[in-house]
Design a protein that fits this description.
The protein is of the alpha/beta class and 506 residues long. The chain contains 17 helices and ten strands. It is elongated. α3 (26-68) runs antiparallel to α7 (186-224), α4 packs parallel to α7 and α6 packs antiparallel against α7.
Length: 506
């Protein structure tokens, strides 16, 4: 059961949208797949299974007691019902407190994950004491909720035992009266008392198991909350055939990450099949948002987006993304080996081809790291690599793929000019493709979100994003001649590259 629940949660995590994951906390989701599942597992082993045995014993012993003396058994039944009412009434509180405890544990895990993820910043800033205090607050919450739950659970059993002891006292008194009146002999009374003592074990088991059940149901509620996260429409992968020269079109698109704060407003543009387009603009203008909407990491609030002439909202995401390769500024490296990161999907790539591409992007060999090979462990989140090396690894993954659309979001931001020039040369060759021959052949469609003038210069067309839409478009040279805003943007970019410190002071 625990294995099935873990598999189910992982499947749910993979099928949820990027927007849903952005709103959630990864450490809390991890807590649900580990701590909460373990609580449910304990519910099954320490709750459901003992209840079955306890019920069998309870029914069997009750039958013998009824045969001996139905009137005395009614006394036991009344005590049992009182104890049951106590267990059920307290059980509702146990379930809620268990949910609160598991939620506190998730928050504590999130605090610890935040601390570990930013450990370099914490130590460099001398913020150990303040961070210890923040995590300590969450630890106190966990302790408080745990104590509340423990107090309530520990109260249930004594109350049930009190009912049973009261029943024992009544049975002794009534038994003595029935014995003196001749309605019962000594052997029957002793037998009835023996059965009564035997009842204590299953009744205690039922009360404890019921509390365990409620704790498990509290954890199960948190696990089931994952079903409420927005789910992507994977659908059926109707077509994975390669289609060189795929067009992209935005028609009247509005989008904002927060309600009432639009990033794109009535954004419209078209990218022709096989075209290489650079998207430029100031920080926060919505350049990266365009990439995320093409990938369907987010859905447009209004308007339509077309890829290859099809509305992306009607395409299964598995089919859409099978045609797209992405390299972003903050490249996420998978924990594992170089091989794990180069071929994370289902396509098979030979080792020789992988090594060739790694040398081409300057990640290994004479121009890179001599100690790097396909089975080299890159550490947690690739922490053994620099930012530039992580970006080169993403480029290698792109060059090994066969996508029709290449999305590059500040994809050379961590590279030096010489490496950037080499990467763009590889990009041009890859964009043309092996099958793009002849004057009318179409290569891969390339969309580059960039501040780099080099990237803008090699593009067939440049889109200047401002005010939530396309302010101006044309070639790099045309915009330099015709757009004051573009010239200012290029001038600011040059100054920041030459002297980033003085620009920040200014």
């Amino acid at each position: 059961i625990a294995r099935a629940m873990r598999d189910r949660l992982v499947s749910r995590y993979l099928s949820r949208t990027v927007a849903a994951h952005d709103r959630a906390n990864s450490a809390d989701l991890l807590s649900r797949a580990s701590v909460d599942v373990n609580v449910v597992k304990n519910m099954v082993s320490a709750g459901l299974i003992p209840i079955v045995g306890a019920i069998v014993m309870l029914v069997g012993i009750s039958g013998f007691m009824i045969l001996l003396d139905p009137i005395l058994f009614l006394t036991i039944l009344v005590a049992f019902l009182i104890g049951l009412a106590i267990v059920v009434s307290k059980g509702r509180s146990v379930r809620k407190m268990s949910l609160d405890l598991q939620t506190s544990l998730g928050s504590f895990a999130a605090s610890v994950e935040r601390l570990l993820a930013g450990i370099r910043t914490v130590k460099a800033s001398g913020a150990e004491d303040s961070e210890r205090e923040k995590v300590g607050v969450q630890s106190v919450h966990v302790w408080t909720e745990g104590v509340r739950l423990a107090r309530l659970v520990s109260l249930i059993q004594p109350l049930v035992n009190l009912c049973l002891q009261g029943a024992l006292l009544v049975v002794v008194i009534l038994g003595a009266m029935r014995l003196s009146s001749g309605r019962m002999d000594v052997g029957e009374l002793l037998a009835f008392l023996v059965y009564l003592f035997m009842l204590i074990t299953p009744i205690s088991t039922l009360s404890q198991s019921y509390a365990q059940l409620q704790m498990g149901f509290g954890a199960l509620d948190r696990i089931m909350e994952v079903d409420g996260l927005d789910e992507e429409d994977f659908g059926l992968d109707a077509s994975t055939r390669r289609r060189r020269g795929v067009s992209i079109e935005f028609s009247g698109v509005d989008f904002g990450y927060l309600e009432g704060e639009p990033v794109l407003r009535d954004c419209s543009f078209a990218i022709r099949p096989g075209e290489k387009v650079a998207i430029v603009g100031r920080s926060g203008s919505g350049k990266s948002t365009i990439v995320e909407l093409i990938e369907r990491f987010y859905e447009a609030d209004r308007g339509e987006i077309f890829v290859g002439g099809r509305n992306v909202s009607s395409m299964p995401v598995s089919e859409l993304r099978s045609h797209i390769a992405l390299v972003s500024q903050e490249t996420e490296t998978l924990t594992g080996t170089v091989r794990d990161n180069l071929a994370p999907g289902t396509h098979a790539v030979s080792d020789d081809r992988m090594r060739t591409v790694l040398r081409q992007v300057g990640l290994c060999g004479p121009d890179g790291r001599l100690d790097l090979d396909l089975d080299t462990d890159l550490g947690q989140g690739g922490n053994s690599l620099s930012g530039g090396q992580r970006q080169r690894l993403a480029w290698a993954r792109l060059l090994l793929g066969d996508a029709d659309i290449l999305l590059l979001d500040e994809a050379t931001s961590h590279l030096d000019p010489q490496t950037e020039a080499a990467i763009f040369a590889l990009l041009n060759a890859h964009a043309r493709g092996r099958h793009a021959r002849g004057r009318h052949a179409r290569g891969r469609t390339v969309v580059m979100v960039t501040h780099s003038e080099t990237a803008a210069a090699i593009a067939d067309r440049v889109l200047l994003i401002s005010g939530g839409g396309v302010r101006k478009e044309g070639t790099h040279r045309q915009l330099l001649r015709e757009s004051v805003e573009y010239r200012q943007l290029r001038a600011e970019s040059r100054r920041s590259e030459e002297s980033p410190i003085s620009l920040e002071i200014a």
